[in-house]
Design goal:
By secondary structure, the protein is mainly alpha-helical. It is built from five helices and four strands. α1 packs antiparallel against α2 (57-78), α3 (87-101) packs parallel to α5 (148-171) and α4 (117-142) packs antiparallel against α5. Residues 1-31 are annotated as: Disordered.
Amino acid sequence: MGNRLSKIYTRTGDDGSTGLGDGSRVPKDSPRVAAYGTVDELNSTIGMVLACEGVDEAVREALTQVQHELFDLGGELCIPGMAMIEDTDVARLETVLDAFNEPLPPLKDFILPGGGMAASCCHLARTVCRRAEREVISLRHVEPEVRPQTQRYLNRLSDLLFVLCRVLARAGGHGEVLWQHERRRKPASG
């Protein structure tokens, strides 16, 4: 392994800037930092799913692979010009998604976040993933050299996380929490 951090604080960011992987410095609120920061947040929320009791080994294996790929994706966003996420990574997500989705019954209603701790944490990861995707899209507007594979990966990952929410809710014995759209149509009493 290359350089190791022996000192955690450097004070170089006290002026509101941060160093990218290529050595350049940018404001901490730049679109690039927002994008890879949100990918880091996403990785942390997936860690919360993995910390939950009773997560099936197949789900655990899929999400651990995703965590590694998110670290690569964050590195790609942190180092302008770097290419780490490929079309094969997106295709792998599609294969995993299809395998988890195939045994599930078709959806007839919207699902509310819930269904036990693991499913709830996965819903949180799904929403953070959507935000990471939006951040990457915003970054691509100002820095078009950002590769489309990152955006496609996050889009597909949010779909996988949605399916895993369903899987985890069912596996945890809580079931999916369905939106009760008919509740609004009840006549007012009184």
